[in-house]
């Protein structure tokens, strides 16, 4: 049911140790609205508030953004094309770039229901299938190992959360992924 190509992460460092976002316009308990930048992604019916201390990049980032080099690109078009190809809507990093938060989104398969509309048994079954699909991703460039997994509820929306250890070109990365289906869209950060 899960397309591994859809839910593969970008080869860049993706660590979202603490999600400080609000989904569907509800304010986060950690950050006041005055301390955030507000983003709306109509394509995936998603609204997020990102703490102002994070440097944000979206598909509309322009060449006059002085932080492009933080992501290793010289031109905004390269970033935009990469984001579109990988179904990324937002990348956010702190000034020291010691972690990166990435929000992916896509239209959900017709066979996937919104997680908040599923009964407990259906959600648990889908969760087990998702965890199995994430357990041992190995390809030519990246080896991943699933360390922990759980279901958490944020703003009444269940998320499948996985903690993953990745090794790529002798670089170790620890990642926390949040995955949900809401209103016909898959969202992963």
Task: Provide a descriptive summary of the structure in words.
The protein has 189 residues and is α+β, with helices and mostly antiparallel strands. Helices cover 15% and strands 37% of the residues. It contains 3 helices and 9 strands, in the order αβββαββαββββ. It has helices spanning 4-7, 76-85, 120-134, and strands at residues 36-41, 46-51, 55-58, 88-93, 101-107, 143-154, 157-168, 171-182, 185-188. The strands form 2 sheets. It has a 7-stranded antiparallel β-sheet with strand order 3-4-5-9-8-7-6. The chain has a two-stranded antiparallel sheet with strand order 1-2. β1 and β2 (46-51) form a beta hairpin. The longest helix is centred in the C-terminal third of the chain and has 15 residues, at 120-134. It is globular. The two termini are 20 Å apart. The relative contact order is 0.20. The model is unreliable at 1-31 (pLDDT under 50).
Low-confidence stretches: 1-31
Approximate helicity band: 10-25%
Percentage of residues in DSSP E strands? 35-45%
* Mean of residue pLDDT values: 79
Question: How are the strands ordered across the major sheet?
Answer: 3-4-5-9-8-7-6
Number of strands: 9
Biggest sheet overview: 7 strands, antiparallel
Order of helices and strands: HEEEHEEHEEEE
Distance between the termini: 20 Å
Mind sketching the topology for me?
Blueprint: H1 4-7, E1 36-41, E2 46-51, E3 55-58, H2 76-85, E4 88-93, E5 101-107, H3 120-134, E6 143-154, E7 157-168, E8 171-182, E9 185-188
């Amino acid at each position: 049911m899960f397309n591994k190509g859809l839910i593969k992460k970008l080869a860049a460092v993706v660590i979202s140790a603490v999600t400080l976002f609000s989904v569907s316009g509800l304010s986060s308990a950690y950050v006041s609205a005055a301390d955030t930048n507000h983003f709306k992604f109509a394509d995936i019916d998603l609204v997020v508030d990102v703490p102002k201390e994070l440097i944000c990049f979206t598909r509309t980032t322009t060449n006059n953004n002085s932080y492009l080099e933080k992501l290793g690109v010289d031109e905004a078009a390269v970033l935009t094309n990469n984001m579109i190809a990988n179904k990324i809507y937002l990348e956010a990093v702190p000034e020291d770039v010691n972690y990166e938060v990435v929000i992916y989104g896509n239209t959900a398969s017709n066979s996937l229901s919104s997680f908040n509309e599923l009964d407990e048994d259906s959600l648990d079954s889908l969760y087990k299938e998702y965890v199995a699909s994430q357990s041992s991703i190995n390809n030519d460039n990246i080896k991943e190992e699933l360390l922990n997994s759980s279901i958490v509820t944020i703003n009444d929306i269940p998320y499948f959360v996985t903690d993953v250890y990745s090794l790529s070109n002798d670089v170790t990365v620890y990642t926390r992924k949040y995955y949900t289906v809401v209103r016909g869209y898959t969202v992963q950060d």
